[in-house]
Amino acid sequence: MAFLLHRLRLPCLRATCSSAHPVKVSLRPSPQTAINRSVLPAVGHITLRTTQPSCRDFHTSPRRSALPPVAWVVIRAVAQIGSIIGGRTLRKRWQNLSDHEKKGVKTHLWKNKWFVGTVGSAFVLAVIIDLATHFQETPITHRKRYIAFTEEQLKQIVDFEFKMIMEDVKDNVVPATNAVYGLLVKVAQRIVDNNQDIDLLQRQKWTLIVVDSPEENAFVLPTGQIFVYTGIMKSVKTESQLAFMLSHELAHVILNHTAEKISTCQLIDKMIILLLAMLWFFIPTDGIAVITQAFFKKVVDLMLHLPYSRALETEADEVGLQLVAKACYDVRQSSVFWNVMALQSELPGQEGQIPEWLSTHPNHENRASRLDELIPEAIELRNKCKCLRLPDKDPRDEVAMLRQMAKAAVQPSAS
To answer: Which residues form the Peptidase M48 domain (predicted)?
Structure first.
């Protein structure tokens, strides 16, 4: 799984600009895209329609990942239970055999070693073919990854997830006249309009849904629904920070992280089903097998699922930074956003951050540090797009000063 976990010095910040002309900030929609404010106004949807033809730790990602197809949920549960029962049954039968009978089984297997080897080789070959035929390359970052779903299958999964989310939030969706909409539409529109070279951003019909909730959350479904919870506005201090937050979530969609994550989880589940049968066969007692299985699950989470999830979040941060650079926002605010979140988590009464190795997301400081490494390239890309010059005052300096003051405040005074 190393190919899924590596963190590249991404080439995305060398992308071309969408326009050869300076980009100006305007409260009005760009001529390339029309905003239809009459779409479902009663429930507060605003749809961004492009004119091109269609061909508690703070996380800015969904609380739930998109659910796998119901069929796979059932098959996975049955297969895991079956592997446990099968492995345990074989172990019990093996333990009840006499030494002579065990010797006879080993002799039989040895006599049929070519058949056993052929079956094993066929299984390995099937796995290799499955992997080889389902590898795709991510747009922008050009990373190889395993995708087991077609676009239509993914749409069915996400449509199901969308219905579940709307069922949860339907009573809290604010009307289209809400003041937050104007800012969100302007920012989303500006990002889309100034990234014309990204085909998905132009083909997709984007729908904005604002939820009145103190929860600090925002996410974008692969089918184009942008969910923003009003609680997040307390954490976003500038328009550039809001743009980075939205761009991060749009990057997940551009990179097709939902399909990738579901596919990878299913691939891991298939391996676990086989390993569970082996575990329950070789572990001598049921009690030890239960403990070993629980330990094995935790190891899989810590060594595969969590690092993989953090790698996807880092990739979305890096691509999101490119999107805001081409939209002529202050890219330095991306680092400020996560540094401020880190400072807030350290305030008295806050729970603080859990250790990164136990989290699906990188910690705030590491995200800020990674973005700081990429900001010089982002500024260069911004200049190539003929954006207006950034203010000389770097907003990161103020955050650094606040951090020094915070450290000084907690140090015991010399007496």
So the answer is: 199-374
Phi and psi at residue 335, in whole multiples of 5°? -70, -40
Contacts of 322 (CB under 8 A, 6+ apart): 12, 13, 15, 140, 378, 381
CA distances from 234 to 200, 229, 242, 329, 365 (A): 30, 10, 11, 20, 19
* Residue ranges of domains in the chain: 2-64+171-252+306-409, 70-144+260-304
Residue 313 among the catalytic residues: no
Assigned token pair, 176 = 């289209």
Angstrom CA distances, 96 to 46, 104, 153, 179, stand at: 68, 14, 47, 73
Q: How far apart are CA 295 and CA 282, in angstroms?
A: 16
Type of residue found at 111 = K
Q: 253 pLDDT band (50/70/90 cuts)?
A: very high
What average pLDDT does range 389-404 have in this prediction?
90
| Bridge partners (DSSP) listed for residue 210 | 228
Q: Which residues lie closer than 8 Å to 414 by C-beta, 6 or more apart?
A: none
Q: What angle is formed at CA 19 by the lines to CA 238 and CA 313, rounded to 5 degrees? A: 50
Q: Which of 101, 151, 239, 249 is catalytic?
A: 249
Residues 119-140 have pLDDT tens digits of 989 988 988 888 888 899 999 9
Summarised one tens digit per residue, pLDDT across range 135-172 is 999 999 999 999 988 888 888 889 989 999 999 999 99
pLDDT for 218 beyond 60: yes
For residue 161, the one-letter residue type is E
Angle at 20 between CA 319 and CA 393, to 5 degrees: 60
Task: Report whether pLDDT(47) > 90.
Answer: no
Bridging pattern class, strands 33-36 and 45-50: antiparallel
CA distance 306 to 68: 18
| CA–CA dist 315, 363 (Å, integer) | 14
> Torsion angle of alpha carbons 237, 240, 242, 243, nearest 10°?
180
Helical H runs in 255-355? Answer: 257-282, 286-300, 306-326, 332-345
Is 370 or 67 the better-scoring residue by pLDDT?
A: 370
